[in-house]
TrEMBL record:
Keywords: Signal. Residues 1-22 form the signal peptide. InterPro entries: Thioredoxin-like_fold, Thioredoxin-like_sf. Residues 25-107 form the Thioredoxin-like fold domain. This is Thioredoxin-like fold domain-containing protein. The keyword Signal applies. The keyword Signal applies.
Length: 119
């Protein structure tokens, strides 16, 4: 009985860690990354209040921990920050690096057009 309860707890924890939405924007980041910090200041505070944020909520993943992405990626992530748009666990597109607000929003707008579940 303890084994069954333990297995149920593990499955419940795994379900909680998996993405809850059909689409997400994964941001692969690394401690000490100045471009990650700039993204944190310029975009992250308002992201969830934007249309893109409602379509694809932001989820942070440590660079090098691709297993934590719970998604099939088209290629390894090598640079921080890298933004990967996923839908139903599959990569839709990515933005390698952060070059400022205007570039980020423009590139993200193009990627979100590829989502199949745009309301």
């Amino acid at each position: 009985m303890a084994v069954v309860a333990g297995a149920a707890a593990v499955l419940a924890a795994m379900a909680g860690a998996a993405p809850a939405c059909a689409a997400e924007l994964l941001v692969f980041e690394q401690a000490g990354c100045v471009w990650c910090q700039r993204f944190e200041r310029e975009i992250a505070p308002l992201y969830s209040r934007t249309e893109e944020g409602r379509l694809a909520p932001l989820r942070r993943v440590a660079l090098g921990d691709e297993d934590a992405a719970f998604a099939t990626l088209a290629a390894p992530v090598r640079y921080a920050p890298t933004f990967v748009l996923v839908e139903d666990g599959q990569e839709v597109g990515r933005i390698p690096g952060y070059a400022g607000e205007a570039a980020f929003w423009g590139l993200l707008a193009e990627m979100t057009k590829k989502l199949s579940r745009i309301p």
